[in-house]
Amino acid sequence: MTIEKVVVHPLVLRNIFHKHHCVVKNTGRRGVGVLLGWRHGGIVSVTNSYAVLFKEDSVWSFDQTHHESMLRMFESVSDVVVGWYSTSPEPHVNNLDMHAVFRKYADDPLFLTIDVMRTEMEIPTVAYLAVDEVNEVGSSKKTFFRVFTEVAPPPEEIGTSTRSTLVSEMLIDGALQDTIESHYLFVKNKVRISVEGYDLSLDPFDLDRSLEEHFGTCGTVEYVDVPRHPDTNAISNRCSTVTLGGEFAEEKALALNGTDVEGWTVTVKVLPPAMTELMSGKSPRELALEYLAARNC
């Protein structure tokens, strides 16, 4: 089944940021590690992580023995390997080779890049899957395809004592509150639009590219969601969703209603916020405080 969304637990980000600043920051290298979690339908939930020994000088190397030793320590936990992460948002020539290694541990591994140097209050992660891209002569090669990502508050399923421990650790300097507030702020500042008018016979990757290019004039294209069949990967719905960021993105997107996109006419409609709480008119800080109060944090 196609992965439609990746949900990252704040604890994962905290662990990765901490590891990077304590161990990797002054080495000039990126940090690499394993992502643990679970998958249900089209959603992957990343709930834990650990760093691995990784070098990429003239030849890259990944210590699989160390990784498998670490993995055995998590055998009593229900989480499984769902992919891997890198603390560099920039593309690296070794990423696809590294990704291939993780196919040994997960059928369809996730690749998560984490910008540990980002200062803006936005989600510092981007998730990718490796897909086959077919060229004009019919041959294919692996390429990374972006997947919608969000940061979630601590899961409700964890026990009270465990949750209290996580909260006490993450409330240093208001870290948990800031994480939740940042998530609300991120979602609030994005514009979601529905796009219709295309034919289902189009290639989903071509449609994704066309929409990203067409609406790139409106601001930053954060995410393009083209519904795809879980088995055939063909376009399965005549309505796609585009998430935009930037000043006046909504007005600019609506101005493109009725314009031509490579031979078909686009219909644009503005969608409500992805989180219904934001329709209350309350600020992201108020919503974060309410969330924590409701969970006795």
Automatic annotation (TrEMBL):
Q: Which intervals of the chain form a coiled coil? A: none
Output the Pfam families linked to this UniProt entry.
JAB (PF01398)
Annotated InterPro entries: JAMM/MPN+_dom, MPN, Nucleotide-bd_a/b_plait_sf, RBD_domain_sf
Q: Which SMART domains does this one have?
A: JAB_MPN (SM00232)
Which intervals hold domain MPN? 6-137
Task: Specify the domain of life of the species encoding this protein.
Answer: Eukaryota
Entry's PROSITE patterns? MPN
Q: Name one GO molecular function term.
A: nucleic acid binding
Query: What Gene3D superfamilies does this protein's entry cite?
Result: 3.30.70.330, Cytidine Deaminase, domain 2
Protein name, please? MPN domain-containing protein
Q: Which species is this record about?
A: Brassica campestris
